[in-house]
Amino acid sequence: MKRRHRYRHLPEEQDSNDRWLISYADFITLMFAFFVVMYSFSMQNEGQYKQMTESLVKIFKNKEVSGKPIQIGKEPKTLVSEPTLVVTPEKKPVKPKSEDEASKKAMAKIAGQLIENLKPLVDKKLIKIDHNDRWVQIQINTSILFDTGSSVLENDAYEPLNALAGVLKPLPNIIQVEGHTDTIPITTKRFPSNWELSAHRAASVVHLFTKGGIKPSRLSAIGYGEHRPLSTNTTQKGRRENRRVVVVILADQNSRRILDIE
Q1: Residue 215: CB partners within 8 Å, gap ≥ 6?
Q2: 184 and 112: one domain?
Q3: What is the helix (H) or strand (E) element at residue 198, kind and residue range?
Q4: What domain range includes position 232?
Q5: pLDDT per residue over 96-130, tens digit each?
């Protein structure tokens, strides 16, 4: 007897409404891959720019830069040579010891001549002479040079200044004349402040030196006003010390006056 086959009716496939998720997932995957690639490129360029920046910093800091190549990315073929530049800082010429010794002896000799020629005023402490290997300075109290508030030389000033000019005339040295005052203010038509007073006093000494035969090209007049005091301005003695004219004889034409005041 034949068996009767039982056919089972399978349910028909129904259309799914979630198929868009597959396309969306593919799109997200592609976007993720795209941003990964962009991120890798950005990291690669950052390294390149960092290396180039470090090279430029070395150059502008006057450091020796070697010719070591800078690698861009991971490929060894993509190389940029770092610029080779050696910047040597400018060095000031150093005098040989023999020249320093000669300069020191010359300054000591000039100081000795001045002390000998101006001994009476040195003994009275109206003139003070100091020296080192760079300059000789003659500090003159203005009480023997000028009246109060004036830049006109007194009669008693000509004798010591002419004696000083006689020593300086045969020398080749550059000479600076500095004028200094105390802090007592001055306000006149001719001298609106101590700047003008100190500068005019220095110029008066310079004019006298030129009349004594010293070449004007060797001379300069500088006014410091009350801004380079030697002593306190709260006492009469201190103010008297601050009112002064300083004649500075430089060791050579390239020297510069360095005023050290403690």
Answers
A1: none
A2: yes
A3: helix 194-211
A4: 97-250
A5: 666 778 888 889 999 998 899 888 888 888 889 99
